[in-house]
Design goal:
alpha+beta
């Protein structure tokens, strides 16, 4: 599966765990922050993704504790998860660099200072 690009929710979830272990609610909040408010993981989606990523050995349970009578599980990246996230970041960077290079060759259309050429739609 390392040869396929990551889906955005997986990328954001792994990114949220890249700097420190987090429990479910903290992951949801971190993904919301990282995505600029665009991606809000629902509880069912989050825990299904966490289970899948544990099975794929990209993340692991860091610790479990009981808070207000409920089990709270925190997750962290594994070494393999860190490698996979770094590879995906490199892939995205290469694609973005190529897009910027081509935009620069296209006479400046779409660069930071301009928008879409006249008559075109975004």
């Amino acid at each position: 599966m390392a040869d396929r690009p990551m889906q955005e929710p997986t990328l954001l979830l792994l990114t949220a765990l890249s700097d420190e272990p987090r429990h479910g609610y903290a992951i949801v909040q971190e993904v919301l922050a990282i995505s600029g408010g665009r991606v809000r993981l629902r509880t069912g989606t989050l825990y299904a993704a966490l289970d899948r990523l544990v099975q794929e050995e990209l993340i692991e349970v860091y610790c479990e504790e009981v808070v207000d009578g409920r089990l709270r599980r925190s997750y962290t990246l594994t070494g393999g998860g860190r490698v996979r996230l770094a590879a995906e970041a490199d892939r995205l960077r290469a694609v973005a660099n190529e897009a910027q290079r081509r935009l620069g060759l296209a006479g400046g259309f779409g660069t930071a200072g301009s928008s879409v050429p006249k008559g075109a739609t975004a």
